[in-house]
Amino acid sequence: MLSLSHPHPHADSTTPARHHRRILPSPLPHHHHHHILRRRRRFANLTTSAVILGPDGNPIGGGPRDHKLPFAPPPTAPPDQLYQPFHPPPSPLPEKYRALDLAERLAVLRDRLGLWYEYAPLVSALSREGFTPSSIEEATGISGVEQNRIVVASQVRDSLLSENFPDEMLPYFDSYGGPELLYELRFLNARQRADAARNAIDRRLEPRGVRELARSMKDFPRRRGDDGWGEFDRDSPGDCLAFARFRQSREQIDPEDAVAELERAMQVVETDAARARVEVEMERARRKAAGEEIDDEEASPELARPDVPVVRLMYGEVAEATTVLLLPVVRETEGVEAMTAAPRRTKTDVDLGLVEVDKGWTRWAVVPGWGPVAEVAGEVVVIELADGRTLPWRSAEEERVLVVANRGRREVVESGIYVVEKEGRLVVERGRKLAEQGVAEAAAEVLIVVRQPKDEDDMISDDEWD
């Protein structure tokens, strides 16, 4: 029984009143005294304490002087039931496994009772209950690698269901080799997984083939700007794989190996534009394998290698260079007027490294003292391009590049590379194209194209696939 008692007993209480009397230091006016009494009564009315009474009506836990409630334990729940305020997450187990006890669940895994994607959730459930991969392996015989594979593969399979994957195709992955196939699709998004799964079924791929397909699909968007990239369809798994083999053919030293890679690309290519591009490349490779002299521009003049050096700076290269050049920089958006107004060198003191220019400037680039550039340093200007893919040969990646150009040579010849202005922007064009357009004079002739330093060029991180 719970009742409330006043902490300040009245005069007739057994507790002496002197324990609750306050002595004012000095008499106060009547109105002040009345105010204090009223305030005291107000606080007295608000101050209460609790007393726990036993069955016989006597206080428990120290009587009225104990103003704290004793600790009350939380209500106990019936056996095998959770305390109601806690709401557990939904069970990841299929309905038919929820009634099984621990021994029965381990038996299902140990004896592989059912299809692999049906008992795969049991592994996740055991992990949530505190089991480690090694303890699960000890109890069921399923290695930690296989545990991870079937759990991930079951998640991939679930994503196929969400993408309306044809039901008649799903049984292809029901066999014990299904997890190895689906596991290789784990780094693709849901739509790509569905497309890759269809392609794997149509071509009866093994895990190694599915891995190559998945890598090519994931890598394809990163290759934008590479030679021939635009002729392949990113939404076609076959085109992505064909482009990967197309690129590999160019990395082969032996022409016969290049032809073999292109033949493998022809086996999987799906779109007409991509097939035509592979056929052109294959014809060149076969002629080269036969010993014929091949011009790089025969296949596609717009995709051929440039006629000017394209270099990538190394970290520390400028600091280690014997001589360096300080060159004015112009942004591509500033147009020919800014390039013409960029300062020109008027005097150089080689011994002390002093350089004089004819006007002030705010942006400068420091590059190694390359011979072709140093010879005409007085007329050199650097154009900063925000995206190297705008170069006419499209072999640069999506990165900033510096185009070092000579303003002293402006006459257009077909074999040269030049800087011109188009719609207020500075662009790089081939001399052949400018000549076809009737352009006889450009803003400057390109001497060299400089790419920024990079730690790993054309590499894929191992941990991305493992």
UniProtKB/TrEMBL annotation:
CC per GO annotation: chloroplast
Rubisco accumulation factor 1 C-terminal domain: residues covered: 308-454
UniProt KW Secreted keyword: no
Database matches in InterPro entries: RAF1, Raf1_C, Raf1_HTH, Raf1_N
PANTHER family: RUBISCO ACCUMULATION FACTOR 1 (PTHR35299), RUBISCO ACCUMULATION FACTOR 1.2, CHLOROPLASTIC (PTHR35299:SF3)
Residue ranges crossing the lipid bilayer per the database entry: none
The UniProt record lists the keyword Chaperone: yes
Residue stretches making up the Rubisco accumulation factor 1 helix turn helix domain: 102-160
BP-aspect Gene Ontology terms: ribulose bisphosphate carboxylase complex assembly
Organism, as annotated: Leersia perrieri
Region feature (Disordered): 1-34, 54-78
One Pfam family this sequence matches: RuBisCo_chap_C
Occurrences of domain Rubisco accumulation factor 1 alpha-helical (ranges): 177-281
UniProt biased composition (Basic residues): 17-34
Keywords: Chaperone, Coiled coil
Residue stretches in coiled coil: 259-295
Protein name stated in the entry: Rubisco accumulation factor 1 C-terminal domain-containing protein
